[in-house]
């Protein structure tokens, strides 16, 4: 069994990857079998649909802004993402998102996300941080939420990337 359920949470086997590709706007162009299975959607319900179909309300907008800023600039990003399934379950992923480059034209033609099961230690750190960021967003929008993230990083004296990768 690659997917297990505990309450409202789904967890997937740590040796497996959830994979998707999107076009430049974030519409899903490919989803692997595990993506389809855990999401609760049929492949036809996912293809050509925006990736925010999985968006969970516990995710800060500031994380998605950071994600898009990074990949649109041609860079990669690691991020913890909590996703919501069709049947209102949730699952945490540790995502690695990269631009896909057409080698002939050297242009970005879409984006690629490979996700592993995050460590419980990582979730235990990220979940309360995201909660704080969401609360800040309600008052002061994305800039207030980004400030919470930046303050956390500067207190720990680490970059975003080092922070995210330290809880593997
Ligand atoms: C390759 C790629 C994979 C993404 N994967 C997810 C994902 O698994 N869950 C999610 O909520 N957003 C994902 N996003 C971000 C969404 O495009 C979107 O920014 C996010 O769901 C917030 O949606 P909203 O801006 O409409 O609120 C991904 C984006 C890209 C480029």
Describe the fold and architecture.
The chain is an alpha+beta fold. It has one domain: Beta-Lactamase (2-Layer Sandwich). It is 39% helix and 29% strand. It contains 5 helices and 7 strands. The strands form 2 sheets. The chain has a 5-stranded antiparallel β-sheet. Strand 6 (90-102) and strand 7 (107-116) form a beta hairpin. Helix 3 crosses helix 4. The protein starts with a strand and ends with a helix. The model has no long low-confidence stretch (mean pLDDT 97). The structure holds flavin mononucleotide. Flavin mononucleotide binds at residues 20, 22, 26, 51-52, 54-55, 59, 64, 67, 71, 81, 83, 97, 111-113.
Count of domains: 1
Can you give the helix content as a percent range?
Answer: 25-40%
What does the radius of gyration come to? 16 Å
CATH architecture: 2-Layer Sandwich
> What is the strand tally?
7
* Global outline: globular
Order of helices and strands: EEEEHHHEEEHH
Averaged pLDDT? 97
- How many DSSP helices? 5
Largest sheet: 5 strands, antiparallel
What is the CATH fold-level name? Beta-Lactamase
**Poorly predicted parts:** none
* Beta-strand residue percentage: 25-35%
Strand order of the largest sheet: 4-3-7-6-5
Structural class: alpha+beta
- CATH homologous superfamily label: PAS domain
User: Span between N and C termini?
Assistant: 23 Å
CATH uppermost class = Alpha Beta
Small-molecule binders here are:
flavin mononucleotide
